[in-house]
Amino acid sequence: MKAVFFRKHGGNEVLEYGERPDPTPGPGEVLVSIAAAAMNHLDIFVRNGVPHVPLPQIPGADGSGVVHEVGEGVAGLAPGDRVLVQPGLFDGVCEFCRSGEQSLCVKFRILGEHLPGTFAEKALVPARNLFPIPAKISFEQAAAFPLTYQTAWRLIVGRGEVRPGDTVLIHGIGGGVGWAALEIALLCGARVIATTSGPEKARQARSAGAELVVDYTAEDVGEAVRRHTDKRGVDLVVDSVGEKTWMTSLRAVRRGGRIVTCGATSGPNPAEEIRLIFWKGISILGSTMANDREFHALLAVVASGRLSPRIDRVLPFARAAEAYRLLEEGRQFGKIVLVPESAGRRWPDGD
Questions:
Q1: What are the backbone angles phi and psi of residue 143, rounded to the nearest 5°?
Q2: Is residue 98 domain-shared with residue 221, that is, in the same domain?
Q3: What is the per-residue pLDDT for 51?
Q4: What is the mean pLDDT of the chain?
Q5: From its phi and psi, is residue 267 left (phi > 0), alpha (psi between -120 and 50) or beta?
Q6: Residues 44 and 61 in one domain
Q7: 295 in any annotated domain
Q8: Would 222 be classed as within a structural domain?
Q9: Which residue has the higher pLDDT, 235 or 341?
Q10: Residue 122 half-sphere exposure toward CB, CA atoms < 13 A
C-alpha cells in the first residue's frame, strides 16, 4: 500500500511517500481502506519527535473509509461498510476504563503516534474504535472532526461544565480545537470571546457567533477582555496554546473561574503567577480527548447537523509535506484533509 511515513524524526525533510506493507487484522481488529485522513498538530509533534513513537511510523490520527477486512471475533462490521475512526485507544479493563473514563486509561494510545496511523491507503483499527458514518456526511467531513471535536467537547462540556450565559475565552480560534470549541460553546448557550490573527480569521469567527474577536497581534488580549467584561473576567478560558497565552489566561479569568487546557502548541513551560491562582480561587483543569459517553454524544450532535467540521482544503497524500507546512505556518482556517490519489480528484495548485 502507499503511505506517508518517516524513518527518523525531524522536519519535512524526513517525510516519505511510498510503499509500506499491507497490515493484516488480528482478533478484534478491522482493516479499513482509507478514503480521507485529517491533519492535526499532533502529527507535527509526532514527526518532530515525542517519546515512545515507534519507527518507521505512519502518522495520522483521524480517518474515514470503508471496511476492507475484519479479524476474528469482529461482529457488526462487514466489508464495504462506511466507517469513521475514533483515534483514542484504550484497554477497556483498567480502573479508569471500568469507571467510564477511557481517555484516562493507563494504557491510552493514539493512532499515528503509538501505532501506525491513517495517512495510508489502509489502516488497522480496533473494531470498537470504528463508528458508522452518519447519513449525508462525506468521507472528508467524517475524517475532520473526531480528534479535535471530541477534545473540544470534553474541554467545554465535560471538564469546563459550560452553562448557558457563561462567558468563554478561546485562544487561537483558527486552529481545529479552537474552532470546534467555539461551535460547541455556542451550542451550549455561552457567550464567546475569541482570539486569532488577521482580519479574515476575525471575520470568520464573528460570522460564526463570537461576540468579541481580539487580534492578538495588534491588541492586548487581557485588556480587551477586562474592558468587554467590565473588569469581571470570563467564566472559562480554553487554552491549548501554552507558553504564549498562559499569563493572559490567568489574568482574564474571573475570580472563582476555570481554565481548561488540552495542549501547549507554543511550548509546555509557561511563566506562572501562583499568587493569582490562589488569590482568585482559579480552578485549572487538564483534559485529553474524550470518554466513550462523550464521543457518542458528540457523534449524535454531528449526525444531527448542529455541528459541522470546517474544511480548509483537501490534498493528496503525495503532497503531505505541503500540508504540514501550511499547518505549521498557521495558514489554514479549518482542517486540512489528505486523501489517496486513487480518489481521482483534481487538486489545487501548490500554496
A1: -80, -20
A2: no
A3: 86
A4: 94
A5: left
A6: yes
A7: no
A8: yes
A9: 235
A10: 16
The answer for residues whose C-beta is within 8 angstroms of residue 28's C-beta and 6 or more apart is 71, 72, 73, 74, 126, 127, 128
114 pLDDT exceeds 80?
yes
Q: Residue 329 falls within a domain, yes or no? A: yes
Strand segments (E) across the chain: 2-6, 15-19, 29-38, 64-70, 82-85, 88-89, 109-110, 122-126, 130-132, 167-170, 191-196, 212-215, 234-239, 253-261, 283-286, 311-316, 335-339
Residue 26, C-alpha cell as written in the block: 488480528
Which among 103, 125, 102 is positioned nearest to 112, based on CA atoms?
125
Q: What is the CATH number of the domain that holds 189?
A: 3.90.180.10
Q: How many CA atoms lie within 13 A of 341 on its CB side?
A: 10
Question: What is the number of domains present in the chain?
Answer: 2
Distance between CA 97 and CA 205 in Å, rounded?
36
**346: pLDDT strictly greater than 70:** no
Residue whose C-alpha cell is 448557558:
164
**Whether 233 contacts 255, CB under 8 Å:** yes
Q: Is the pLDDT of residue 157 over 90?
A: yes
Report how far Cα 200 is from the mean position of its chain's Cα atoms: 22
Integer Cα distance of 35 and 80 in angstroms: 12
What pTM value is reported for the model? 0.93
Q: Which three cell numbers stand for residue 21?
A: 506493507
Domain of 123? 2-145+309-343
Does 313 score more than 90 pLDDT?
yes
Is residue 214 within 8 Å of 193, Cβ to Cβ?
yes
Q: Which of 211, 213, 153, 214 is nearest to 187 (CA)?
A: 153
